[in-house]
Structure formats: structure tokens, C-alpha cells
Amino acid sequence: MQNFKYQIFTSVIEEQIKSGILVSGDRLPSVREIKEKYQLSITSVQSGYDYLVMKGWVENRPRSGFYVSIKTNENIPEDVPKLSLTIRNSDFDKKVKLTSKSNKSFEQISFNTTAPTDLLIPQKLILRKIQEVIRKKGASILSYYPVNGSEILRNQIAARATKLGCKIKSEQLIITDGALQALYIALASVTQPDDVVAVESPCVFSVLEVISNLKLKIIEIPVHYKNGFDVDYLKDAVTKNNIRTVVLTPNFHNPTGILMSDETKKELALIAQSNEIPIIENDIYGDLYFEGERPSTICKFDTEGWVMTYSSFSKTLAPGIRLGWLNAGRFFEQAERIKFSLGRSVAPIFQELMIELLEENSYDRHLRFFRKQLEMQCVELLNVLRLCFPKDCYFHRPQGGYSIWGQLPEKINMSDFYQFCESQKIAFTPGNTFSYTDVYSHHFRIIFADRITSDNIMRVKIIGEKVQSILDENL
Questions:
Q1: Residue 280 to residue 184: CA distance in whole angstroms
Q2: Are 323 and 312 in contact (CB under 8 A)?
Q3: Of 80, 289, 311, 369, whose Cβ has the fewest other Cβ atoms within 10 Å?
Q4: Cβ atoms of residues 377 and 228 within 8 Å
Q5: Distance CA 203, CA 236 (A)
Q6: CB of 255 within 8 A of CB of 223?
Q7: Distances, alpha carbon 241 to alpha carbons 196, 307, 431, in Å
């Protein structure tokens, strides 16, 4: 089902450009021709062409019409940081200081917080529904709810998963206080201190902190720009080490934004089953796809219950809504005991809020515009970065989620770079916080969750010029 009326023709044009049917310089049908062919309003057609222009597929030539843009192939680096197949102690103390520093508050926008901002949060919808919940439920929302969460909510989540081909049993679902609690429960259910855990690399630092707090050891599995998660590397690691579980984000990986292919997901499910190694997959960004259909999960290809999937609504609604869920599969009994030890139940008002939003399809209607706004933010910021920074720098185009993964030349002193960014009241997240190693020292993550203003663009341009001046000095 198309999200916007104009996608009935924009999706066709995009596919024809990608497949080579349309090439650079080809003239596209006029607004009136599209209007008549697809029975759309002129406003819808114009909006569709504006969307294609924004994405860089099409250019508008005044008094001439719309044409396929002259696009050059994206130069994706072949050389990626090398990781050794080494078991590491998960001492994250120094990294925690880096993440704390990167979360400082600035007068201007910071590009380091992976959460919806006022630009994206449907404030009126949420507040109205909360008021309705209070009127309908009254004092009952002040009482304990079931430890595993509302049965109605669990049934709704299971039903949504079924539509994606993932057969989740509602009785094996646990409602949690956010995604990180779900991860903690999943990890604690299948590991003991000093067990070895395989994680993707780079990996979002909040996951690394949970692993560190549980006193686990890790092996980092590289995620490549072109091919994504390195399954062969994982197979080698599984053969040589007693890996107890694998933790990863298949859909719009944080920080790279890479989408794992269904072939890789199937292969991972087979690895889990044949080696009896549980996989813990983070699907928190799965609803934030920019193109096509909602991607599947590894859970879809799991037939024996070795995949534990968790997610949350904080990234798609509001960060203050601390409500997540965990599909514990065959590990439900262990997970249930751990959840009980962490607290009786998740805030009833949030559970009832989500029940209302899911029941009336308000959540899905919100997601349509949420995704489109995120994509527009992403394209605009990516274009600014590529325009303002030297060509020797690389910024990876994400396929969904919140983040752009940037890379600067080795000649740049990154400590000086971050200090200069701070002087411009711009904050990026240092690459070293995404690994227990230092292989990402010249990488950084940029978040596009907030409105991009002319002031932001000016500051990013100043930072880019500073990087160029440093490179010129080293010639």
C-alpha cells in the first residue's frame, strides 16, 4: 500500500532510474501528463516531483520541465577498519566518559541524540490520547499491571509481527521499560559473567555498556559499507570460540544505517539453529525505513525459537515513553524471572496509550509522516555534509533510522576536530564510542532527528572549511 498518493508514480520513476531504463538527462513526463495518467491532482504530482528533486534523482529545469539528474556513482570505500578475531574484556569506563561528554547540552542543535525531537514527536496526538486513557481507565491505571504487561498490548504486538511473517506468541512476549531493559533481560537470560558475546562493529554504545555491566567478554564482528554484517567472520568466530549469544541490529544498523539483506538474515537464523546459539536482535529502527516495504526480521526465518527480538516505541513516538517489548522465545521462563526482579510492571498509562494508538491505527498514520520527515532531514543533512566537507571525507547514506556514519582522513587530529565542533556549538558522537577498540577513531556519527536551520548549515560549513584547511596544511 502506498504511503502517499504521489508514490504511485515516484516509485515507478525511481525504479526505472535504478534499473537503467531512465538515464541521466532523460526528460520526464510533464505534470499534466502524470496527472492524467495516474488520476492525481496537480498538487500531488508537484509534491511527487519535489520529493524526487529533494532525493537527488530529478532536477527541475525552468521553462523546460523535469529531467533525470546527472548523478555520479557513490564512491563507497573498500578499505574498512580491520578487526582481529580477539576476545576482549568489556571494560567500557573510558568510553562512558566519551559518551557523557558527547551528550553535553548546547545552545544550538547537537547532532548526537538518537531520539525524536519536537519536530517529529506527535505531541497533540499523544497528549490527547493520554487524556482519553485517564478518562476511560480512571484510577485503574494507578494499580499494578501484569508483570509481563497487558495481554491486549501483547496480542497487538504479536499480531503486527505476524503481518511481517514472524510468528510471535503473545504468551512469550514481555513488556519492558524501554529497549535497553529488554536487551538486559535477554542477555542475562542466556549468559553468565565471563561468557563470550559476539556483537556487530561498530555497535551503538548503549549496547556495549549493558554488555560491560553484565561483565561479559566480546568479539566484534565487522559491518562493511557494501555488504553489511560479515557472516563469514561470524562463522569463523563461532568455530574458534565458545560464543554464547550474538547481539545485532539487522534493520538500519546504528550508527551506519545499513539494512541487512534477507539472505543474511536467513543465514544467521541457520547459524543460530545449527550451533544452538541464541541471537538477540534489536528491531528498534525497523519501522523507520525510507523506501519500499517494512523490512523483515531475523525472527521471521527462525523455526526453533533461537532468536530473541526486542524493540521499543521511544524512537518512533517520544523518548519519554519508556515502553518496549521482548520476544523471549524458548528462553521465556528465564526472561520472565529476570523481568520480575527488575520491577513489577511497566507504567500502565504508557501501556494503555499504546493500546489506543495501535487499535485505532493512529500509530501507523503517524509513522507515514514520521518516516517522510526523517528521510527529508537525512537527505538535506547528507547533501550539506558532502557539499561542505572535503571530497576526501566520506558520509554513508543510510537506508533508514536516524544516523549518518562519517569518516575523516587520517591526517585529521580528531581531538582538535571535536574541540572545534564544540566551539561552533555542534556535537557529533565520536567513532571510538562504538567499539571497545580504537579502529573507528576517525569516524563519527551524525543524527538528523532535529530541524536543519540555516544557522546549522553555516556552522557545518565552517567545520568543513576547517577540515579542508588542515588537509591543505599537510600537503
A1: 10
A2: yes
A3: 369
A4: no
A5: 19
A6: no
A7: 8, 20, 27
pLDDT tens-digit map of 211-269: 999 999 999 999 998 889 999 999 999 999 999 999 999 999 999 999 999 999 999 99
Closest alpha carbon to 210 in 110, 84, 301, 338: 338
**134 CB-near residues (< 8 Å, 6+ apart):** 141, 349
Question: Residue 444, SS3?
Answer: strand
Contact 90, 215 (CB under 8 A): yes
Helix (H), strand (E) at residue 458: helix 454-473
Mean pLDDT for 312-316 is: 94
Checking if the pLDDT of 349 tops 80, the result is: yes
Residue type, 121: I
Interval 349-355 mean pLDDT? 95
CB 403 within 8 A of CB 447: yes
Cα angle, residue 100 at apex, residues 209 and 196 outer, rounded to 5°? 15
DSSP 118: T
**Distance from C-alpha of 285 to C-alpha of 313, rounded to nearest angstrom:** 10
- Backbone φ and ψ for 104, nearest 5 degrees, come out as -60, 150
What band does 97 get if pLDDT is binned at 50, 70 and 90? low
- One-letter-per-residue 3-state SS of 321-342: CCCEEEECHHHHHHHHHHHHHH
The DSSP letter of residue 361 is T
Condensed to tens digits (0 to 9), the pLDDT of residues 149-165 reads 999 999 999 999 998 88
The secondary element (H helix, E strand) that includes residue 141 is none
Q: Is 96 exposed, middle or buried (0-12, 13-18, 19+ CB in 10 A)?
A: middle
Q: Hunting for cell 576482549 — which residue is that?
A: 88
Secondary element (H or E) of residue 381? helix 362-388
Residue 58 parent element (H or E): strand 58-61
**Of 347, 278, 319, the residue nearest 180 (C-alpha):** 319
CA atoms within 13 A on the CB side of 468: 13
Q: Which long-range contacts (CB under 8 A, 24 or more apart) does 35-43 make?
A: 37/9, 38/8, 38/9, 40/5, 40/6, 40/8, 40/9, 41/5
**Separation in Å, CA 444 to CA 124, 212, 247:** 34, 22, 22
Residue 272, C-alpha cell as written in the block: 543460530
Distance CA 56, CA 379 (A): 9
| The predicted structure's pLDDT at residue 452 | 84
